């Protein structure tokens, strides 16, 4: 056979190859190696917020959302370089009232110390969760020192508060009560309504927070003066206004004041409230514009590209430079898409909207926003659904959702937080005393009636006499009324029974028996005596 195959090998080689090719083509799909799905590279723009959204909420939302995206194998996030879009914590003023600066300056780049502090803070949290409390305290205190030096340039104040919380938790969980209570007091001075998760910090720390809240006392008001007057004033990370502001309802202790303004370097100061005396602090900013000679007009600098975060904050996706600048940023990071996000607030919830730009053709689509409760109770579930919609949009780009107008998310009505209602004294009704318990009345005991003397013989008993009608008794204790025809005499006790030895018939029987017995005895004795006499007479005769 081998000889035949060798002989006819040239003739059968072509059919064999054709048959092999057809067999391979007919193999099922799992038998063939599948090409891996392509990973989408996305340039991520940090979450921007409305004025009514608290400053710390976007940070928490962004942490959860980034964690969900990073575990998605089909998505790779690229951090936005600081030189392209620096983070800006203060929402811009409306375009109509916002003055145009005479000189355009490039945005300030974040100081390297802030990046190092953020890295140390993350390491310290991981060490604290792992139970390595001493190393965690050392790392967290280094982060606290770096943040403290650059507090004027720190736009996200919650990062500093987070470090203080973990320092207090590490002290208390490690058994250092004195240092832990002092650190916890510093935290509650900045965040008197602090709420922590027992699953993350432990029940011991939660109990310490609740106890420390009771010791927190309100301090006097502080007056903050910003120079220049258009400077925006932040107290403990919260925007309170511009110019000169009087801030009250602050706990006693150390507070941080930060002022920012266009064309100026940001600056910060600290003020400590004690007793009842009010405090005042003035923060003067240093101008970034070089002085020009008198009489010479200032030369306007060449306009710079707008940061991408400003587009996300204002919703100006239809401006002429938006697509060009987004594609340029994506090209520098070799990204396929650019993801914008905005956190607005309605009267009852937060809404996180996503806007996905295809860097290849410049098309921008809107993804249905996530509805998040104001207490962030459904944060994980809402963001999980939002991440699923994002993954679906990457697979099937929804061109029917192209952004052709300013998104409605940026114009939510009633988005400002409602004022705290003034407590109104409400008269509490005096409770009516309960009525005393009703004692159930027992029905009256039947009256014993005189029993007539029983007459022995054939005399008929006297007929019954009709009882007078009884007065109806008032119902009491839940018993029903007794009917008027109820035979009360039947309830009388039965007459006592006469003893047997007093029965007439007993003594009659006894008398008859006695008489009969005596008669029989006499007859027997008489018969015996007559027989004896006859026998004696015979003997005598």
Detailed description of the structure:
By secondary structure, this protein is an alpha/beta fold. Among the domains are: 187 residues, 3-Layer(aba) Sandwich (Rossmann fold), CATH 3.40.50; 109 residues, no CATH class; 74 residues, Immunoglobulin-like (Sandwich). It contains 13 helices and 15 strands. The strands form 4 sheets. Strands 1, 2, 3, 13, 14 and 15 form a 6-stranded mixed beta sheet that branches. It has a 4-stranded antiparallel beta sheet with strand order 6-5-8-10, covered by helices on one side. The chain has a 3-stranded mixed beta sheet with strand order 7-4-11, with no helix packed on it. A hairpin with a 2-residue loop joins strand 5 and strand 6. It starts with a helix and ends with a helix. The N terminus and C terminus are likely disordered.
């Amino acid at each position: 056979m081998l000889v035949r195959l060798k002989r006819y090998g040239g003739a059968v080689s072509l059919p064999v190859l054709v048959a092999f090719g057809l067999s391979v083509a007919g193999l099922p799909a799992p038998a063939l190696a599948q090409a891996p799905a392509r990973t989408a590279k996305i340039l991520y723009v940090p979450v921007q917020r409305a004025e009514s959204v608290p400053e710390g909420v976007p940070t928490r939302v962004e942490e959860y959302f980034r964690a969900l995206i990073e575990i998605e194998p089909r998505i790779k996030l690229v951090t936005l370089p600081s030189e392209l879009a620096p983070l800006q914590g203060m929402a811009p003023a409306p375009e109509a009232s916002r003055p145009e600066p005479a000189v355009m300056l490039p945005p300030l780049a974040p100081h390297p110390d802030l990046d190092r502090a953020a890295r140390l803070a993350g390491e310290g949290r991981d060490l604290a969760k792992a139970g390595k409390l001493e190393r965690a305290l050392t790392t967290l205190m280094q982060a606290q020192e770096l943040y403290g030096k650059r507090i004027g340039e720190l736009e996200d104040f919650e990062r500093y508060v987070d470090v203080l919380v973990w320092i207090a938790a590490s002290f208390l969980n490690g058994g250092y009560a004195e240092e832990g209570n002092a650190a916890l007091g510093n935290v509650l001075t900045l965040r008197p309504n602090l709420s922590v998760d027992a699953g993350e910090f432990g029940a011991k720390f939660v109990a310490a927070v609740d106890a420390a809240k009771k010791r927190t006392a309100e301090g006097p008001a502080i007056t903050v003066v910003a120079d220049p007057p258009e400077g925006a004033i932040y107290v403990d990370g919260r925007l309170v206004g511009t110019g000169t502001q009087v801030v009250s309802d602050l706990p006693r202790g150390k507070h941080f004041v930060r002022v920012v303004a266009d064309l100026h370097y940001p600056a910060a100061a600290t003020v400590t409230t004690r007793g009842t005396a009010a405090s005042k602090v003035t923060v003067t900013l240093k101008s970034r514009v070089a002085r020009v000679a008198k009489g010479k007009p200032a030369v306007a600098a060449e306009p710079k590209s707008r940061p991408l975060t400003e587009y996300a904050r204002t919703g100006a996706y239809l401006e002429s430079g938006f697509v060009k600048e987004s594609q340029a940023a994506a090209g520098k990071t070799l990204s396929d898409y650019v993801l914008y996000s905005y956190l607005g607030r309605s009267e009852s919830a937060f809404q996180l909207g996503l806007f996905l730009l295809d860097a290849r053709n410049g098309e921008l689509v809107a993804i249905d926003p996530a509805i998040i409760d104001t207490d962030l109770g459904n944060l994980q579930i809402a963001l999980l659904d939002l991440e699923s919609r994002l993954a679906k949009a990457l697979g099937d780009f929804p061109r029917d959702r192209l952004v052709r107008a300013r998104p409605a998310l940026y114009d939510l009505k009633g988005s400002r937080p409602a004022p705290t209602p003034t407590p109104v004294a409400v008269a509490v009704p005096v409770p009516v005393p309960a009525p005393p318990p009703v004692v159930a009345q027992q029905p009256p005991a039947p009256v014993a009636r005189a029993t007539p003397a029983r007459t022995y013989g054939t005399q008929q008993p006297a007929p019954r006499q009709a009882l007078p009608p009884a007065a109806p008794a008032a119902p009491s204790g839940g018993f029903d009324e007794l009917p008027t025809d109820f035979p009360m005499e039947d309830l009388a006790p039965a007459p006592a029974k006469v003893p047997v030895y007093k029965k007439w018939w007993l003594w009659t029987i006894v008398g008859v028996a006695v008489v009969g017995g005596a008669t029989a005895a006499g007859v027997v004795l008489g018969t015996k005596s007559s027989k004896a006499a006859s026998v004696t007479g015979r003997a005598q005769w």
